[in-house]
């Protein structure tokens, strides 16, 4: 079984492709069990965020895992294959380290991805698909990410998606202290956005969520109003800025709802940032006048601000990652020798037991103990040396020199001068 990773991200696939292969949190464990249960895959973990869907697995048939990803989402392999990146063994290790360290993110050095990776590991543990190989990989991955963030300035001057949304609102409205802000969802991303917008003292903040409990919990922190998603048709027109990020598989805001809100607002503009994948806002909404709609990929230019000052940190991070890849591959090579070492020890144990049983019978017959011990030691020695001696004697001229060097190394022999 070899380590293998594959997937799509914001660099290889557009948003309309990425949103077709996401894994909502409540389906993750089922998906993992399905992947391992229906394919020759020993271990598996899935990372699914707004910017990437990746599968890490141990398998001898990577093509089966890639076919599964398309099939699970009711897609044809040919629809997904042009966007897939594929990383075997060492490349998979390096990719995991780079992702966790924020080097492969839309926001260079962003810290949220580390939490998302830890959630992926937790899901795999609960699903029973995280074995020794992936456990070791992700533990080393978290160690590397911590070392990169501690030893470099990779996260310095970075602009998060949440901060980018607030900056973009300011570019459109100028001072947003006179604006009413509506947050749809109550997850980590919305919480981060709320922090940035609240710091700019908007006129009003509203939090809409499927469950009122979570909406109220978040709203209480920002002196905001809490509503449910069913209140949106009436509440939407009352807000100038809308930031949405839910785990809904279907759009929350349709063209009709937004169009009605614009009419009620008498065509005063409304600014919408959709950070969800799959999208919370129908793409047709962008066709409406007086609507400024931005999806997660549209914020890429803003989050690149300050990138030049962090290029030296990237080089330092890559050095740390490369060193740890070498260490991990060394451990992996050692693990791959385990079956051979175990087989060698098992064979030695069989020899020992056979000769011990024979010696015990001789002692029971009254044979001289010294002669029995001598015979046992001779028999064991002959059995252990028979195979290497036979291989040397029957080796071809081309093989002999290499075998002699190997046996000298294995048995720590010194060739006569």
How is this structure best described in words?
By secondary structure, the protein is α/β, with parallel strands linked by helices. It has three domains: 2-157 and 309-336, Glutamyl-tRNA reductase, N-terminal domain (Beta Polymerase, domain 2), CATH 3.30.460; 161-303, Rossmann fold, CATH 3.40.50.720; 354-410, no CATH class. The protein has 17 helices and ten strands. The chain has helices spanning 15-18, 28-38, 62-72, 77-80, 89-100, 112-127, 132-151, 161-173, 188-198, 212-221, 232-235, 255-264, 300-303, 311-336, 338-364, 369-393, 397-410; strands spanning 2-9, 41-48, 52-59, 85-88, 180-184, 204-209, 225-228, 241-244, 270-274, 291-295. The strands form two sheets. The chain has a six-stranded parallel β-sheet, covered by helices on one side. A four-stranded antiparallel β-sheet has the order 2-3-1-4. α5 (89-100) crosses α7 (132-151).
Helix/strand-derived category reads: alpha/beta
CATH class of the largest domain: Alpha Beta
**What general form does the structure show?**
elongated
Radius of gyration: 31 Å
> How many alpha or pi helices?
17
| CATH hierarchy: architecture of the largest domain | 2-Layer Sandwich
Q: Gap between N and C termini, in Å?
A: 44 Å
Helix/strand order, N-terminal first: EHHEEHHEHHHHEHEHEHEHEEHHHHH
Sheet with the most strands, sense and barrel status: 6 strands, parallel
Q: Which fold name fills CATH's third level, the topology of the largest domain?
A: Beta Polymerase, domain 2
User: Low-confidence stretches at least 5 residues in length (pLDDT < 50)?
Assistant: none
Share in β-strands: 5-15%
């Amino acid at each position: 079984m070899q380590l293998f990773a594959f997937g799509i991200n914001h660099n290889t696939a557009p948003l309309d492709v990425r949103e077709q292969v996401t894994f909502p949190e409540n389906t993750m464990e089922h998906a993992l069990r399905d992947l391992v249960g229906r394919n020759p895959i020993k271990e598996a973990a899935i990372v699914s965020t707004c910017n990437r869907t990746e599968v890490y697995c141990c398998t001898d048939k990577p093509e089966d895992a890639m076919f599964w990803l398309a099939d699970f989402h009711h897609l044809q392999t040919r629809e997904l294959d042009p966007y897939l990146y594929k990383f075997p063994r060492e490349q998979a290790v390096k990719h995991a380290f780079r992702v966790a360290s924020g080097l492969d993110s839309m926001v260079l050095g962003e810290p949220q991805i580390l939490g998302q990776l830890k959630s992926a590991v937790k899901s795999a543990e609960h699903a029973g698909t995280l074995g020794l190989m992936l456990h070791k990989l992700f533990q080393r991955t978290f160690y590397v990410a911590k070392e990169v963030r501690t030893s470099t300035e990779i996260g310095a001057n970075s602009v998060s998606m949440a901060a980018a949304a607030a900056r973009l609102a300011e570019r459109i409205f100028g001072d947003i202290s006179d604006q009413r802000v509506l947050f749809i969802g109550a997850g980590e991303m919305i919480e981060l956005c709320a922090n940035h917008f609240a710091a700019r003292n908007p006129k009003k903040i509203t939090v809409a969520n499927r469950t009122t409990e979570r909406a109220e919990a978040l709203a209480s922190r920002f002196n905001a109003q809490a509503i449910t998603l069913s209140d949106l048709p009436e509440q939407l027109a009352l807000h100038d800025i809308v930031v949405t990020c839910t785990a809904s598989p279907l759009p929350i805001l349709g063209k009709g709802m937004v169009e009605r809100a614009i009419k009620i607002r008498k065509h005063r503009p409304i600014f919408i940032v959709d950070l969800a994948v799959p999208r919370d806002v129908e793409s047709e909404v962008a066709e409406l006048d007086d609507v400024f709609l931005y999806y997660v990929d549209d914020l890429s230019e803003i989050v690149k601000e300050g990138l030049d000052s962090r290029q030296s940190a990237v080089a330092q991070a890559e050095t740390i990652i490369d060193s740890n890849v070498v260490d991990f591959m060394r451990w992996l090579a050692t693990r791959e020798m385990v079956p051979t070492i175990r087989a060698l020890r098992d064979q030695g144990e069989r020899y020992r037991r056979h000769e011990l049983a024979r010696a015990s019978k001789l002692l029971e017959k009254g044979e001289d103990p010294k002669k029995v011990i001598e015979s046992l030691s001779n028999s064991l020695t002959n059995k252990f040396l028979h195979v290497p001696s036979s291989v040397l004697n029957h080796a071809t001229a081309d093989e002999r020199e290499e075998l002699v060097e190997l046996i000298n190394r294995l048995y720590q022999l010194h060739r006569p001068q």
